[in-house]
Amino acid sequence: MRALPALLPLAALALLVALPAAMTSPYALHLMILLFLAITQGESWNVLGGYTGQYSVGHAAWFGIGAYVTMMLLQFHHVAPWWGMWPAVAAAAASSLVVGSITFRLRGPYFVLASIAVAEIFRLVALNWKDVTNGAEGILMSDLPPLQVAGHVLTDFTSKVPFYYAGLALAVLTIAVNWAVHHSKLGYYFQAIREDQDAAHSLGIALTFYKNVALAISALFTACSGAFYALYVGFIDPATVLSTEVSVQFVLISIIGGIGTIAGPVVGALVIVPLSEALRANLLSDVIFGLHLVDETSPAGLFLKDNLAHAHALIYGILMVVVILFMPEGVLGFARGLLARRRRGHAPPVAEGSA
Amino acid sequence: MATTPILEIRHVSRFFGGLAANSDVSFSMEEKMIMGLIGPNGAGKTTLFNCITGFYPPSRGEVLFDGHRINGLAPDKVCKLGMARTWQKVRPLAKMTVLDNVMVGALARTNRLSEAAELAMRQLRHVRLDHKARSLAGGLPIGERKKLEVARVLATQPRLLLLDEVMGGLNPAESEEIIQLILDTKRSGVTQMVIEHDMKAIMRISDRIVVLNSGEKLAEGLPREIVANPEVVAAYLGESAE
Amino acid sequence: MPIFLQSVVSGVLVGGVYALIGIGLTLIFGVMRVINFAHGELLMVGMYLTYYAFTLLGVDPFLSVLLVAPVMFLLGVLLQRVLIQRVLSALPQNQILLTIGLGLILSNTVMLIFTSDYKILSTSYSSGSVMLAGLSVSKPLFFSFLITAAITAALYAFLIKTDVGQAIRATAQDREAAQLMGVNVRRMGLLAFGLGTALAGTAGALISPTYYIFPQVGGAFTLKAFVIVVLGGMGSVIGATLGGLVIGTVESLAAVYVSSGLKELFVYLLFLFVLLVKPSGLLGKSRM
């Protein structure tokens, strides 16, 4: 990040803060909110997966806890979400410590498997504990209480703008957390664990302890994103917040951009969100028809029209395969590699911006 | 004047399934000495290192550091107590810079990044790798990787340093550099145990030598005694003893 | 008591098919150290092949094993050649991510082509039963068990008696040593993934008369396959066989005595338990 002058992110932030004044289209705001959500998800996962190298494909567990606890407190106990999210986040962090203590004994792919199993266990519990979670029916939010400060109503959440700013704040927060981790003893220890666990151990690093710290931080912010999602969308069920697809999305956002970097998840979000939305909004099929690549009325055309919108998970799968095969270091790593090759010479590869 | 030996290995055995990788090994080390640990391949030298530093506990026997039993203590705690080791197959933290690597070591003794960076640079200057501070550790040639590992482990400020074939794969000039580093480290008051196949080097630097063969301690003594010991020579038949 | 015996017997019969799935997975891991998370999806593909062979060509599902196995074998070889081979030297975490992606591609492609409608393959004997030592046993389960036993026996013979089989085992035990001995490890990889896929597809064919057929059916089987393999020891064919029988029985008993809805939960908990307590499995690691 040292290559970018410190001004650039600040300018970007100022722009983003000012944007809703200029951009009033609800759909555009919606897209930005999705972007912020994806960035938050990616940065949260990155603390564990990118820095310590423990790839959790079960982050839906923490997302789900954040969503469910907040929603249940709101719907069933009328606790306003700005209070309700704290127990949600605490629950996620606490249970992550329990899960971590158990699963961090496993390494590499075995940890991946265990993380998947844990998330599935959470999903099955949510599905079957109907008295508490409504099971497969899910929970529908009736209304968000208006946000009041000293008797003044700040917003009643009918417009998307408050969600925009909340989402932006979350995204900035998680980026800041990543930055802080990167530039602290934690960051060094996390990366050492990723690079070589046994060497790290022998250098005085308590493996399970530090992995747990990474997971707790990661789970905490993941739960925030879950709470945010629940309040924004207004409906949750086990299939939408506790599924493997959610977990895969968490991984993809970081992997596409570049694992273990601060900017990586941002890049990943910038790839995934427009892509999913283009699919969902039939933009992609419109383009294909517009360019006359396929005749809209032909069987192929009708097929595309019906199905491209549901090709979400398929695209995730393809993206995953493509990235692992051709760009395991993500877009950023790929770009860095290109630059290094262009700088070709006898100088050994130089890292950007550490210590 | 009897002082507590810094390290005591008492009747240590380590079994893997039915195989005895270490069998009833006993010796002790005084502060500031250099102990050479030699023996043919498979004699159990690295296994002993692993037992001492907590990667697995001894199946039998005791390891005492400064008189305190440390059997089964986790490797990170062993490091914090003041015992550190290097690896037979060198283990750089590849995607981190040379400086960051050594800082990881230094962070065992301080929580402040600035202090760690200072300590790290000092170690890098000491091993003459400071010009490579910003290079990625994974890109270094083997000689520099070995020096990096030594710098990193010295940054943890050990009282006892275990070096596992730190000269393996090095050319004579590089080996000589390592030997000087080892002697320097001795001068700074650190006790060392050195596993090595390079006989000339071991003879030069060791105050005493322990010979392992098939998991058992075959002999212990001064370098000139060991070299003249017919059993030791026999154990190495089939291996070229330099 | 009869209920208990009944569920044990059903469990063992289902366990036979589970064993096939587990053996396929463990072969792939044993030879290449790759954790194939798409294994359940390969089973699903086998189910669809069998379904259409039945509805379009009238081929009995048990007979269609003769068709499905070779086709799946070729698919496996193709996947190995195009995808898996390229990540053999990548981080194991990346390998598993690749297979997760592959699984998503398989299940969602099938969903796009065939929709997520549940399909049912009913044969004349689908609900029939056979009397076995005084217990009533599902006919299709019984036949599939017989076929599974035959296939497993043939596989053992292949691995132990033939040159190729021994080459596979050598590669699984020590890849470098096998290479030095002249084994073409690349070909062993193709064979292993081909065989593993064929076994998964065959398992799919065998259970198609008794399970709903839909694109996401693979997921549950993947995790189950992993429990089996971890229980029996990653890389051990005998272990996978035993593991399959054990899991089949445990699941059957759990469904009867606990709850059908929670039986999956049980399996996942067992999985975590085994991973933690005895990660090298009941029979130790890497011995085929």
Structure description:
The complex is a heterotrimer of chains A (355), B (242) and C (288). Chain A is built from 17 helices and 4 strands. Chain A is mainly α. Chain A has a single domain (24-348), classed as ABC transporter involved in vitamin B12 uptake, BtuC, CATH 1.10.3470. In chain A, a hairpin with a 2-residue loop joins β2 and β3. In chain A, α2 (26-52) packs across α12, α4 packs antiparallel against α10 (207-233) and α8 crosses α10. The relative contact order of chain A is 0.16. The model of chain A has no long low-confidence stretch (mean pLDDT 88). Chain B has a 6-stranded mixed sheet, with helices on both faces. In chain B, strands 2-1-4-5 form a 4-stranded antiparallel sheet, covered by helices on one side. In chain B, α4 packs across α5. Chain B is built from 9 helices and 10 strands. Chain B is globular, with a radius of gyration of 18 Å. The mean pLDDT of chain B is 93. In chain B, α6 (172-187) links the parallel β7 (160-164) and β8. Chain C has 288 residues and is mainly alpha-helical. Chain C is built from 11 helices and 2 strands. Chain C has a two-stranded antiparallel sheet with strand order 1-2. In chain C, a hairpin with a 2-residue loop joins β1 and β2. The N and C termini of chain C lie far apart (37 Å). The mean pLDDT of chain C is 88. Chains in contact: A-B, A-C. Chain A binds chain C through residues 53, 55, 57, 102-103, 105-106, 108-110, 112-114, 116-118, 120-121, 124-125, 127-128, 244, 248, 251, 255, 307, 310-311, 313-314, 316-321, 324-325, 328, and chain C through 35, 83, 86-87, 90-98, 100-109, 111-112, 219, 223, 226, 261-262, 264-265, 268-269, 271-272, 275-276, 279.
